[in-house]
Amino acid sequence: MNIRNRALPEGWYPSSEGEIMELLSEWKQNFHSRDGSGGIIAGIVPHAGWAFCGSFIAEVLSSLQKNFETIVILGGHNSPGGPVIEYSEDFWSLPSGDLGRDKELAKRVNEHLPEDISIVSEKSADNTVEVIMPLIAEMYPDVKWAAWRLPSDENSIKFGKILADTAKIIGRRIAVIGSTDLTHYGPNYGFTPRESLKSPVAWVKERDSRILQALSEFKGEKALELAAEEHSACSAGAAVGAMIFARNLGCSNGQILNYATSKEVHPSSSFVGYGSIVWESV
Fold this sequence. Notes:
Number of strands: 12
CATH superfamily: LigB-like
Order of helices and strands: EHEHEEEEHEHHEHEEHHHEE
Strand content: 15-25%
Low-confidence stretches: none
Structural class: alpha/beta
Mean pLDDT: 95
CATH topology: Protocatechuate 4,5-dioxygenase, Chain B
Shape: globular
CATH architecture: 3-Layer(aba) Sandwich
Oligomer: single chain
Radius of gyration: 18 Å
């Protein structure tokens, strides 16, 4: 049996179920009014440490309709032209318990990818998927998972459609989460354009708003262009893949749930934008 264990160090997310439960209880007090009985089947979340955006991840997960069998996490940190990177372990060991992978769904999706899209297995540490998994294990202990990291190019559009088509063909009820952080600003990231210096936070928020709006309105090519030209998303392919899945499952325009920057938690001249979106089927 092939098991994936924790790869990220302490500080990204808690190491015990008790700590996770305590954080969830605290975060839920500030969630938007949703009971999960609607038709939300997809969303976008950030992937920084939980001190910065754990509540955003938890709120999107809590908003999902409750009858899904498998949750698919689409991660990023995968440059344009890169391969689709698959998480291929049978189980993922998490603080709240082990979750099994939906091997049938993964196999069928991989089989339907065009020959010009290469697939490799993921073995290294990467936060774009891992920081989400402990909350899934706590909130949905009976679901299966599948995960890929998508390149930030038009292959993410192809992948999202294939994922939606495969779910329909095999009759699988799935939810999809795309994972991306937004603008990485400041000297730590080598990104301080002259026009931003007068009001860096307002400048970043405006750019982040443009890409969030494009994603919420199913403008996938526009979102990829904004990410490339304005440096407003580190994992645009993951977000676009989830967006295309939602569109192909008949969802209405997305709702932007939350937005913040890391500066609000850790004041610094270098900071990152975080946003979340959900899509509801109609």
